[in-house]
Amino acid sequence: MLTLVLGQLVWALASQWASVTRGDSGITDIFAPVIFGISTETSKGAFYLFELFFFCGVVYFLWALKRSPFGLMLRGVRDSESRMAMLGYPVALVRYLAFIFAAFVASVGGVFFAYFTGLINPHSVSLTTNVETLLSGILGGIQTLFGAILGTAILKILDVVLSGITQRYLLIMGVLFLIVVMFAPRGAAGALMRLWDSIFSRASGSRIPSGERRR
Q1: Is 38 helix (H, G, I), strand (E, B) or coil?
Q2: How many Å apart are CA 48 and CA 38, to the nearest integer?
Q3: How far apart are CA 176 and CA 140, in angstroms?
Q4: Beta strands 34-35 and 38-39, pairing class
Q5: Does residue 43 lie within any of the structural domains?
């Protein structure tokens, strides 16, 4: 909720500070860079590879951060702030650094969004955009890197497909969100992991000889 409030403050600032952001019209004529003599603005293949490179880099960065001692501290703060504070860890500093890392990842996505659309306006930081980001995390599953990627892919696919079928696609997406919250609290990634574990356990159980099962 705090993130949504901060997002609304940024949206209000971007809408009213017209001398810098140009108001609702936004900043236009944003072009993708030229890399090694290849224009990523005119070549879709070059832009895709350019974006894929940074995407893989960000994923690796988050994966390494999760497995680092700082990532362990983040898990400890998530589970029990009071216990981590009693152990002498700077809880406020850890949370502040986590916010900075999250903002860094979001800024990389924002740069490529501006390159892709060629403009940036206050609508990019509106409440609707912030809610879609929140829904992506919940739909895919929190506390896992794969869940964020999976949730974003599912949300965007449903947005494109359902918006072409019916004008009430937001209602369908809202119902889907309720179903996920009620029956899959860990999101789509958690549901897939449970399904994989059940299949693996059944396959492992079928390989055990009947005599050993009786023992």
Answers
A1: strand
A2: 12
A3: 12
A4: antiparallel
A5: yes
Alpha-carbon gap, residue 142 to 124, rounded angstroms: 23
What's the pLDDT tens digit per position in 56-99? 999 999 889 988 999 889 988 888 888 888 888 888 999 999 88
Q: Give the domain range for residue 193.
A: 126-215
- Among 118, 185, 182, 131, CA closest to 159: 131
Task: Dump pLDDT digits (tens) for 21-38.
Answer: 887 778 888 888 888 888
209 and 144 housed in the same domain: yes
Q: Give yes or no: residues 90 and 139 share one domain.
A: no
Burial of residue 107, with CB atoms counted within 10 A of its CB: 0-12 exposed, 13-18 middle, 19 or more buried: exposed
Give domain status of residue 22, yes or no.
no
> Is 81 in contact with 91 (CB distance < 8 Å)?
yes
Question: Do 137 and 213 lie in a common domain?
Answer: yes
- Specify the number of domains making up the chain: 2
* Backbone angles phi and psi of 77, in degrees to 5: -65, -35
The answer to whether the predicted template modeling score (pTM) of the entire model surpasses 0.70 is yes
- For the range 171-180, what are the long-range contacts, defined as Cβ-Cβ under 8 Å and sequence gap of 24 or more? 173/135, 176/139, 177/135, 177/138, 177/139, 180/138, 180/139
